[in-house]
Amino acid sequence: MASSSSSSSSINPQWKKYDAFISFRGADIRKGFLSHLYEALSRKQICAFKDDKLDRGQEISPALLKTIENSRVSIVIFSENYAYSQWCLDELVKILECQETTGQIVLPVFYQVDPSDVQDLTGRFGDALAQHKKNFRDCLEKVESWSCALKGTANISGWDSRNIESESKLIEEIVNDIGKKLNHLFPSVYDEDGFVGIDSRVKEVESLLCLESEDVRVIGIWGMGGIGKTTIADRVFNGIANKFESQCFIANVREELEKRTPIQLRDEILGKILEGQNFYVGTPYTLHPFIKRNLHNRRVLIVLDDVDDYLHLRDLLGGWNLYGPGSRIIVTSRDKQVLEIVDCKKYIYKVEELNDCESLQLFSLHAFKQPHPAEGYMKQLSERVISYTQGVPLAVKVLGCNLYGKSVTEWESELKKLETIPNKKIQGILRRSYDELDDNERSIFLDIACFFKGEDKERVKNILDCCGFSAESGIRSLLDKSLVTISEKKVGMHDLLQQMGKDIVCKENKVPRKRSRLWDAQDIYYILTKEKGAESVEAISFDMSKIKNMELCPSAFEKFYKLRLLKFYNPGSEEIKLHLPKGLKFLPNELRFLYWDQYPLKYLPSKFCPENLVELHMQSSQLKQLWNEDAPCLENLKFMDLSNSKQLIKIPDPLKFPKLEIVILRGCTSLVEVSSSTKYHSKIIDLNLGNCRKLCHFPSCIYLTNGVSLSFYGCSKLAHLPSGLGEFRCVEYLNLIGCTKLASLPNSICNLKSLKRLDISHCVNLDGLPENLGDLESLENLIATRSGIKKLPASVNQLKELKILICDEIDGLLLPPLTGLACLYYLSLQDCGISEIPSNLGSLGSLIYLVLSGNNFKSIPTSIKQCSELKTLMLSNCKRLQFLPELPSALEWVDAENCTSLEFVSSTFIQGYMNSYLDLDLSKCINLDQSSLMDCLLLKLQSMGPPEDQYLDKEADATKFDCLECLCIARSEVPKWMMYKNDNGSSLSFSLTTPHATDFIKIAFCALFAPKVNDSRNLFMAISCKYRFITESGDSLDVNSSCSKFNINDISLWYSTIHFNSKKFRIREASFQFYGRTDQREFISEVIHKCGVHLLFDHNLEDDDDDGNDRKRLSAMVGYERADDEGLFFTHFSGMSDQVPEDDYEQYPERHEFKGFDLNFALSFLFTLVICLAANSDQTKAQPTRMIFALMLIYVCLKLLSFNSSLSLHGMRN
Q: Any stretches that span the bilayer, and where are they (predicted)?
């Protein structure tokens, strides 16, 4: 069925009353075809009008004419006697009038008649018109209008019943086509229903539906309250409903089930699906076979909105196998678990918040009744609203409606009010999710809202666990209900939900001390300083940076009987804000979590019985010991952090902490020893004694059998490690950095089969590594920078898992042959005075980073080429290095700065540089032969191909690529091949005598960086070039490019390419300004003493097909996927009218270039002339004149050939 053509409607079709008007001859079809068609339209929720209810007279009534006007579609059913009815013909005239004036859709149906009889007015239709002419002799104009209407309608594509086997099939086609056309009349636009950003979300849901698939599929739409789940489901339903035999949308399922039973709601669903054929209603469990059979034969669409219990889905729908192939069920829920349980885990769409632009548009529609706010202060106020709502459509709409028509003063007042008093309507919607939580989940939600938003998930979970909550299951439930989020391992919460949580706590009581949680600094200050008891308070989080100094009395916490969490923190400061001049007698025994920055006393209160304490945090405290007397047994303590407590001299015997897992004593500079009276197998997992500078002994009787991380960083007086270290079987990380008194490692260290990282950097007195080091079968990182070792044991090659080996600044280091290190990808041997690199270096097949800077070797083993994964090679300050061999092709960066003896690089290295992406620093290599390298640079630039389409910014006029490949080389002159140069300055400007029309420019930049003494105050980060191209029409293109490789008094070279989206821009002039860019983003031109630019206009990219594969390879060589790209736009572009069209270029001879094509033609002509002269010469006689002329022609040809090659070399050949 072809769609009917109609003009664009001038009247909004959404304002019309009826979907369809049916024009028919009742006597022919009323009791048969018409009744079936009308019923089918009704089943599809298409509101159709048939005029058999109006009283018929000879003249059509005004009411019926009005009905036709108020219809979106007219269905004209041509039957045998249709044309005999003047009523029908008047309807038809009106229908075509509406098609012409309002764009009404007209669909003809030729029911058991030949369409040609209607079009040609033959057969019964011709007879009818002949009869009308007799009856209306005095009004033939009317008959003529009928004739035109019949012919006009017959020309519209419609249905011929004779070509369709059954009436049911015909009716199905008609109804489906009408449904599609009606959907097109209601596009997804924001200005009718106030929807913004819905189209993209609807498309994502439709992609999950996959309507072409014949499986029965359940799709979930999930998100927090007010996020737009119902709106999306409704839009999807209306968009696809006509593709299903039966449809049903049940809104607010949760609320409906509060009013009636699941059986009653199920029967309503079945009634809608079976179109009233559900004769077996009320059966509680088992569906009647009749119902099952009918459901199985139907392709149905069901939407259940706001489901909060998966059991309800089972009660309402039964199993998915009840429904016919291709059926779709859409469920919206705030609870993800509901959707996962019913087996739609793969098809869950999470509704995201609106972005700021969408939010502002939606808000403006409700607050200003226009898509955008006015510029100025009202827009600023609107943006404050958007910041508050954070993309929740419900909140945006509610606040927009509330502020509509109000003055600026009222807006300011309302926004200020929102900071402390949330909007009731918004909170009412959000509160429902909270009300459905159990007690454990509510407590976790309120703790996160009041204290832990933005904190690390594992830390939050541990704290909540120690407070007696089931944190793992509770947080998971909050995630499923969209009440919290986890992003980058941090616990997040929407600001509106956080405000709701705090509001719930505030409403517990008007008096702060009678609430369960306190976080407001002023409230806490008042309660503690006024000695007000707070028997209901469970948790306090006090940001001491928000108050001045305060003093507490000894009994300040005496009546906090329920307090489980106490956190006093002072971010970014070590100033003691809270003072206890008379000491502290009491802390609540119910405390599970105690966090107190800068605790001001030497001991904890003697009456504090911390039997419930799980975590103790007292960073930067004044503690000397935890208790002045014998410490009580802290049976439940798992975490203890006393870091930077510089007065701490002793901690209790670990026997007092049977469950302790993490101990942080970092920076306790007065701590002398960790003592233990008996052999004790501790459960400690992480022990950090970093910078305990007076620690000289760690007891051998403490066995960290569960220890994973052990740090003695900066323990400069620690002379020995525990002899039983080898029994710490679980240790993975051992940090001995800066243990300057440590003389040896116990051999038992090699029993640490789980050890992954060993760091002995700055252990200057360490005499060596154990010979059986290779027994550390899990070791991945070995770091020994500035240590006292003199050699690596041969067993290092047994470390099959070793990935990183760093032995920097160990003078005279001896290396064994490096074999067997299959996983090693980072090797650093910087400043070790090494005179020879092991010849089998190439066996390190996984090596990616190799640092050999500051050594004494003269050459690099040729086997380095076999390091096929090597990307970075650092050779700076290798002052005896004389030669660079062929290097791996994967290399991206070679730093050979200040290799003052380097004279040659191999030809294979040069060739490799030509065919690869490589950053090369040869600055201060004063003896290097640069000639071959300089020629290579030009050839490489010339060989660069254009980027592939995927890298281009199609919206811009051009795309610029800064190739990250740079070269810094020891010389003071700009290369001779540079087309434009300035030998005494930082800028260049020039005109192109022949304007270039190209879609691809390659640019080489060169600059000599030579700052003066007074420039030393600046930290330079890069050399930058700001340049401009000007076209014939006066448009300008401003571009920036930079290079981060530079050295004083050395030349830096780098490349950029610019790809234009068309050749309409003819470059006439160019200017370049070079700068040194500082770390403060300042641009200083005086530090650039010389500069140069080389431009290549590539004209042959599209014409030269023979070397397309080479161009593709060379294009890849540039590394566009790693280049910095930027879309560029011409300014003051006046349009194509001012440009010279490409096709008309030859009409302007004064602009015509002397191209390589002209040279080739001239050469061909001259050579042909020479051959002709030779062929026609008399072989028997010498003809000196002719011979001289031929030699002159050959000489001219050779000169032209040389000039042509020069043009090709400099990129000017076309």
A: 1159-1176, 1188-1207
Residue in 395, 381, 382, 384 with CA at minimum distance from that of residue 353: 395
pLDDT band at 1162 (very low <50, low <70, confident <90, very high): low
Instruction: Choose among 435, 443, 451, 515: nearest CA to 475.
Output: 443
The confidence band for 1172, taking pLDDT boundaries of 50, 70 and 90, is low
Active site residue 340: no
Give the chain's length: 1214
| pTM value > 0.70 | no
Question: What's the rounded Cα separation, in Å, for the pair 65 and 470?
Answer: 70
Which of 891, 928, 1122, 1086 shows the shortest CA–CA distance to 1007?
1086
Q: Which residue matches tokens 């923190």?
A: 569
Q: At what angle do helices 1184-1209 and 1156-1176 cross, to 10 degrees?
A: 160
pLDDT at residue 1120 tops 70? no
- Mention every residue, 6+ apart, whose C-beta is less than 8 A from residue 255: 306
Q: What are phi and psi for residue 212, nearest 5 degrees?
A: -75, -15
Q: What is the pLDDT of residue 1032?
A: 83
Least confident range from 840-849, 864-873, 1053-1062: namely: 1053-1062
Reduce the DSSP state of residue 402 to 3 states and report it: helix
Contact call for residues 600 and 577 (beta carbons, < 8 A): no
What residues contact residue 290 under an 8 Å CB cut-off, 6+ apart? 279, 280
Structural contact between residues 426 and 397, judged by C-beta atoms closer than 8 angstroms: no
Do the Cβ atoms of 898 and 879 come closer than 8 Å? yes
Rounded average pLDDT over 1082-1097: 90
* Catalytic one of 91, 353, 441, 615: 91
Is 1161's pLDDT higher than 60?
no
At residue 1207, the 3 state secondary structure works out as helix
Question: Lowest-confidence range among 397-406, 676-685, 711-720, 873-882?
Answer: 676-685
- Please measure the distance between the N-terminal and C-terminal CA atoms of the chain and give it in whole angstroms: 55
Specify the residue for token string 């009889």: 117
The pLDDT of residue 1138 is above 50:
no
Q: Dump pLDDT digits (tens) for 891-901.
A: 888 899 999 99
Query: How is the chain split among helix, strand and coil, in percent rounded to 5?
Result: 35, 20, 45
- What's the rounded Cα separation, in Å, for the pair 281 and 573? 72
Q: Which residues contact 976 (CB under 8 A, 6 or more apart)?
A: 934
Q: Are 430 and 226 in contact (CB under 8 A)?
A: yes
- Is the alpha carbon torsion for 1129, 1132, 1136, 1141 positive or negative? negative
Least Cα distance to 554 among 600, 522, 591 occurs for 600
Give the mean pLDDT of the chain: 83
